[in-house]
Write a structure and sequence with these properties.
Layout lengths: L10 H23 L5 H29 L1 H29 L4 H4 L18 H16 L4 H17 L5 H25 L1
């Protein structure tokens, strides 16, 4: 099966990837998405995906500011900057790469939730979640213990719901973490 692509960006790599890696990912997703028959699990992953819309980060920011405005104002500012950078990066990369969403390419994959935009690579929900995670790892000691399960589940939800390939989520997590760590380090040095 020949997969459509929007751009000639890194043509050799894109061709290889589309022909060899994407079909393997689609087969893995077929098994994972097969679990959608369990309504309770689908409801759980829809909830986790919605957290990635930003609600959990907004609530966390408000909670931090309500706890101690002076102590956490720079943390919240760093979270906002990391999210802004992550959104800029993922929107740019999505337009450059133009990877279709899995359910648009593979008939055997279903989508259990409407996608927020046209392209799949990288996962924006995952990237922004891991960007906030990176900031908080640097700026609030020990916070990673509570946040890591949440951001991992947000990323997994995007695969489970048929919105992203596993590599979309993996690259989103890596880029988001790097963005968050760099922004967090910058704010620590600033303050």
């Amino acid at each position: 099966m020949s997969l459509p692509r929007k751009t000639l960006f890194a043509e050799g790599w894109v061709d290889y990837y589309c022909q060899h890696i994407t079909p393997v990912e689609a087969q893995l997703m077929k098994h994972f998405c097969g679990l959608q028959r369990f309504c309770w699990l689908t409801a759980f992953f829809k909830f986790m995906s919605r957290l990635g819309d930003g609600y959990v980060w907004g609530a966390l920011a408000l909670g931090l500011l309500a706890t101690d405005l002076h102590a956490y104002q720079w943390v919240v500012a760093a979270m906002a900057v990391a999210i802004a950078v992550a959104v800029t990066v993922f929107m740019t990369v999505k337009k450059l790469v133009g990877r279709p969403r899995p359910f648009e390419t593979w008939d055997s994959l279903t989508c259990a939730m409407l996608p927020p935009d046209q392209f799949s690579f990288p996962s924006g929900h995952t990237m922004t979640s891991f960007a906030v995670f990176g900031v908080l790892c640097v700026m609030i000691a020990g916070s990673w213990i509570m946040l890591l399960p949440i951001v991992i589940l947000i990323g997994l939800s995007r695969i489970y719901l048929g919105l992203h390939y596993p590599t979309d989520v993996l690259i989103g997590a890596l880029l988001g973490t790097v963005i968050g760590l760099l922004v967090g380090r910058y704010f620590v040095d600033l303050v």
